[in-house]
Design brief:
Oligomer: single chain
Strand order of the largest sheet: 6-7-8-3-9-10
CATH topology of the largest domain: ABC transporter transmembrane region fold
Pfam family, one: ABC_membrane
Main location: membrane
CATH class of the largest domain: Mainly Alpha
GO molecular function, one term: ABC-type oligopeptide transporter activity
Keywords: ATP-binding, Membrane, Nucleotide-binding, Transmembrane, Transmembrane helix
InterPro entries: AAA+_ATPase (IPR003593), ABC1_TM_dom (IPR011527), ABC1_TM_sf (IPR036640), ABC_transporter-like_ATP-bd (IPR003439), ABC_transporter-like_CS (IPR017871), P-loop_NTPase (IPR027417), Type_1_exporter (IPR039421)
Number of domains: 2
Structural class: alpha/beta
Number of strands: 10
């Protein structure tokens, strides 16, 4: 048997485990979560801060140097020229050191942020692989894509601002206030008086900004879902001349995005404008105040420049914080957004469950009931049957009767609400499903191909197989003629969703992929539905050869395709209505006979 490679390991890396734990511990505190996701990188961030302090020092020293030079030029003392030269040399040295120290600072913080960004996305992807099929059925793929790409990007943007802008703002304010309190307690008290104004403005606006940003993010997720659905539907839309209708539908969604975005922009603009005006007024008052006390002889002319520069710096820093509030709100909202995935407990947990190395293929349903979460009535009730190893069982019945549900129970996508599904007399609920699924192959109704060569699509999930084995699979799947007609043969690239191939060709590649796994249990869910009559006949012959010694479960609406099945199960009214060979059921003239007559 060909062994599988790259089996999905549901065990997270230590850093990814730590990320999950951080989200759990700080579920209701997004700020703590944001800080916590950098656990393990604190040393890098510490040294990044040190080099940030060094590289930013010219900004803090410049006002002092300017004041010294102005005072020296004004006093015109004996050492005035020397004082000017020394101060110029000092500031030149401090400015030039910015290049290497800024580079080191950037390397340290950027490497940290990018690493955490990768780890977040990797953890999200692994979590998505763990979440149940029911979860994925309920959650739109566009919304998940938005969380993985857009929300993680927003967190990265917030982190960048924290380690560059906010850090710089905090240090500039601390240094400015430190110098001022050293120089003049009176001026310091005046400076501190501006802080309550900033706090009041932030409190008044932060709630609205957070709410508007949340509304905008949700609208963007909805739009992402709608756009993906629109792209998928383009062939159907074009075939039915519904382009204008689809365009109008997306336009309505875009109008909603525009309205929510405009609300967010206006509140941000209003916020920024009010804060800017308030601080400019304070800066003007500061200029007048320091000018007045200079006239009275309490401070020198140079100190007027020093205080005005520092006050202008403080005003600019506080205004910067206010400007950053929307980015902070978006980042924290995104932390909550990805927490929706990471904190979900609707997972397929295989840990500490029994791993199986071999499957014989016996399948038993013992008093199985199954009911969907959003359904009032069970779809399957007290279902009992046994499939022996190597048998081919076909499931037929009306749409919605539960045929595909039975297949999903066998695959392990769903767990029985009551009763047991047994694989080789072992309850599937006790098995490590990853080890079990390495022995099965599934061909869904709609072929799922990825953008790569035909070869890679066929051998997906297997070790490299021999050229002879690949040719045997291609021949068995009736793909020879297709491969020979393509310019690059089996190395021909498949476009997105395999749109450069016909439906029948895509399905045959999907079937070839299943057989490349050499499974013991084969699941065919309407596997021949996309084939034309000629291809269907040929591939049925191939299937009959390839299902030998394999337990095969087939769902088919076209009853002519299941004539050679060992047994046929008629599913209806929540259970097994009839069970027997094709001839037995036709002779019985029951439900199967009626279904057959409808197709004749």
């Amino acid at each position: 048997m060909i062994e599988l490679k790259n089996k999905l390991d549901d065990k997270l890396e230590p850093q990814e485990e730590a990320l999950l734990e951080i989200f759990k511990q700080n579920e209701n505190n997004t700020l703590k979560t944001l800080i916590g996701i950098y656990k393990g990188y604190y040393l890098n961030l510490f040294f990044s801060v040190i080099f940030f302090l060094i590289k930013s020092s010219p900004v803090w020293i410049m006002p002092v140097v300017s004041a010294n030079i102005i005072n020296a030029a004004t006093d015109k003392g004996e050492n005035a020229v020397n004082i000017i030269i020394v101060n110029v040399i000092i500031i030149l040295v401090m400015v030039l050191q910015n290049v290497p120290t800024n580079y080191i600072h950037t390397v340290l913080y950027a490497k940290t942020i990018r690493s955490v960004e990768r780890e977040l996305r990797s953890t999200l992807v692994k979590k998505l692989q763990q979440l149940s099929i029911a979860y994925h059925n309920e959650m739109q793929s566009g919304r998940l894509q938005s969380k993985i790409m857009r929300d993680v990007e927003q967190i990265e943007n917030l982190s960048s601002q924290v380690f560059i802008t906010i850090l710089g703002i905090a240090l500039n304010i601390v240094v400015a206030l430190g110098v001022v309190i050293f120089k003049s307690l009176t001026v310091f008290i005046f400076f501190v008086g501006t802080i309550p104004v900033a706090v009041i403005i932030i409190i008044v606006f932060s709630g609205k900004i957070k709410r508007y940003n949340s509304d905008y993010r949700k609208e963007m997720e909805d739009t992402s879902v709608s756009v993906m659905e629109m792209v998928e539907l383009i062939p159907v839309t074009r075939a039915h001349a519904l382009e204008k209708q689809e365009t109008k539908k997306i336009d309505r969604q875009l109008v909603n995005v525009e309205k929510k975005g405009l609300k967010l922009d206006l509140i941000q603009a209003y916020f920024s404008s009010i804060s800017w005006v308030a601080f400019q007024v304070f800066q003007i008052i500061c200029l007048g105040f320091t000018g007045y006390i200079a006239v009275k002889g309490y401070i020198s002319i140079g100190e007027v420049v020093l205080y005005q520069t520092y006050f202008g710096s403080i005003v600019a820093q506080i205004a910067g914080v206010i400007t950053l509030l929307p980015t902070i709100a978006k980042g924290l909202e995104s932390v909550s957004s990805i927490g929706d995935i990471l904190l979900s407990d609707d997972i397929e947990n295989n840990r500490k469950k029994k791993k199986i190395k071999e499957v014989k293929g016996e399948i038993t349903f013992r008093n199985v009931n199954f009911q969907y979460k959003d359904s009032e009535l069970p779809i399957l009730t007290n279902l009992n049957f046994t499939i022996n190893p190597g048998e081919t069982i076909a499931f037929v019945g009306a749409s919605g009767a539960g045929k595909s549900t039975i297949l999903n129970l066998v695959i392990g996508f769903f767990q029985a609400t009551e009763g047991q599904v047994l694989i080789d007399n072992q309850d599937i609920a006790t098995l490590n499903l990853q080890s079990y699924r390495s022995h099965i192959a599934v061909v869904p109704q709609n072929a799922i191909l990825f953008s790569d060569s035909i070869r890679e699509n066929i051998i997906y999930g297997t070790n490299s197989i021999s050229y002879e084995e690949l040719n045997r699979i291609i021949k068995a799947a009736n793909l020879e003629e297709l491969i020979e007609s393509l310019p690059d043969g089996v190395d021909t690239k498949i476009t997105e969703h395999g749109m450069n191939l016909s439906g029948g060709q895509r399905q045959r590649i999907s079937i070839a992929r299943a057989f490349a796994r050499n499974p013991k249990i084969l699941v065919l869910d309407e596997a021949t539905s996309a084939l034309d009559s000629i291809s269907e006949k040929k591939i049925q012959e191939s299937i009959e050869n390839l299902v030998k010694d394999r337990t095969t479960l087939v769902v088919a609406h076209r009853l002519s395709t299941i004539r050679n099945a060992d047994k046929i199960a008629v599913i209806g009214n929540g259970g097994l209505e009839e069970f027997g060979t094709y001839e037995e059921l036709m002779e019985k003239k029951g439900e199967f006979y009626k279904l057959k007559k409808l197709q004749m």
